[in-house]
Amino acid sequence: MVLSQIDVFMWCAIDPILVAPFSERAGAEHARDVTPTLHAVNPNLPLVIHDKSDRHPFVPLAFASRLDLIRPSATLAVAQQAAAMKAAGIDVISFSVGEPDFETPLSAKEGAKQAIDKGYTHYTAVRGIPPLLEAIAEEASQRRGVEISPSEIVVSCGAKQALFNLAVALYEPGDEVIIPAPYWVSYPEHALLFGAKPVVIPTHESQAFRVDPDELRKALSPRTKAVVLCTPSNPTGAAYDRKSLEAIAEAVADHDCWIIVDEIYGRLVYDGFEAVSLIKVAPELRKRMVIVDGASKSFAMTGWRVGWIIAPPELAERCEMIQGQSTSNICSIAQYAALSALREASSFVEELKEEFAKRRQRMVEGLNRLPGFRCRMPEGAFYAFASIEGLINRSTGGQKFTNDIEVATYLLHAAHVAVVPGSAFGAPNYLRFSYATSIESIDRGIERIKKALEKVS
Ligand SMILES: Cc1ncc(COP(=O)(O)O)c(C=O)c1O
């Protein structure tokens, strides 16, 4: 196959890092010969500079060996590739985005403007301004039906930093972190960075991608430091109902481990699904439970970088200390924007949900009409996770599809549709479709895929 510049980008940025299992990455080679250009595309590969004089064939730049264990975000890599194609004038329809295509609510923007005008432009308390902590506690208590206090909250630079702080605070060599797959890309990387071992347990489409309590029991060990759940999930959109959360609570009851529940998509559920929180279902676990939440997804505020944890005060204090030694407080203006969003933009979330509910329907119906595709109706978030098992071993133009990465690459080239391969989330032979885009784009994208699949036999 002749590789274009874009192919080189895709394969370097995604393929080798996707297919390498964690065990192999733990023993990664140290000095592979990589040109600076490729290194820039995939910083996971160690940089080795050739000395033209040949007297010293290599001048290796030393980086911490922990970098050999992690990989760049595959979802960001796909989004960047789609952006590069768009910049080259190609009309790409992107189903790879992980953010709402809505404007940030007006009230949040006004909150930010007023903060600037009032001169709230200096350092704040590391964990966040008191009115924001109070607003988060109030909203969280109301929505989750339990009493939550500001002392349990630390505001970070997006839910991502909140999760990173937790990894610094909790994970160390010898620890195991149980992560149900399909998982959000950063959970295993955070564990690996701090020497912990991700223990990935599969979930199954036939069980609505909810973790099987028996599989969880089998994976738990004296080394288990944490179990990480995500509901509704990125990438599957699947959400846990009360009964399945009760079963999980029972499974971990006798194990002294942390339970981290990522509820960043918690407000985005459809068709009257009850998004009950583990903190409500299993109050007895509260001493070792952390809820991760934020403004990014429900308030279309991804760029403002406002996320938070709800954690036992002792852990919240540790996360505050860690953040105090890295970024300190998040941007003061973004904090005022989030405060206004929480206080004044609940109708915005309802509008967002209403629109996403329509798109979810359109996307899932469209995907299920495609030959070789199968997609369950997700309960929440803004992703549809489609099986493409039906395309494996089928061919086009002499090329046989052997995995989801090849199918995603084909769709990008033949249909100019960008999707994220399931392998990025530990779920081969699936593709993730984000429906945070217009109905018109969904229709056009599905139509393009349909045409491209006509050439597959
Ligand atoms: C499951 C999940 N958790 C956390 C995050 C990070 O969110 P934020 O943008 O607030 O850092 C994301 C973003 O894509 C996500 O999908």
Question: What features would you describe in this structure?
Answer:
- The chain is α/β, with parallel strands linked by helices and 457 residues long.
- The chain is built from 17 helices and 17 strands.
- The chain has helices at 5-13, 15-19, 22-26, 36-41, 74-87, 106-117, 130-144, 158-170, 186-193, 213-219, 242-252, 278-281, 313-324, 332-344, 346-369, 404-415, 439-453; strands at residues 48-50, 58-60, 93-94, 153-156, 176-181, 197-202, 224-230, 258-262, 289-294, 307-310, 374-375, 383-387, 395-396, 399-400, 417-418, 420-421, 430-434.
- The strands form five sheets. The protein has a seven-stranded mixed β-sheet, with helices on both faces. It has a four-stranded antiparallel β-sheet with strand order 11-12-17-16. A two-stranded antiparallel sheet has the order 1-2.
- Strand 16 and strand 17 (430-434) form a beta hairpin.
- Helix 10 runs parallel beside helix 11 (242-252).
- The chain is globular and about 60 Å long.
- Mean pLDDT is 90; it is low at 1-19 and 26-39.
- Bound molecules: pyridoxal-5'-phosphate.
- Pyridoxal-5'-phosphate (PLP) binds next to helix 8.
Short description:
Helix content is 40%, strand content 14%. With 457 residues, it is an alpha/beta fold. It has 3 domains: 49 residues, no CATH class; 135 residues, Aspartate Aminotransferase, domain 1 (Alpha-Beta Complex), CATH 3.90.1150.10; 239 residues, Type I PLP-dependent aspartate aminotransferase-like (Major domain) (Aspartate Aminotransferase, domain 2, 3-Layer(aba) Sandwich), CATH 3.40.640.10.
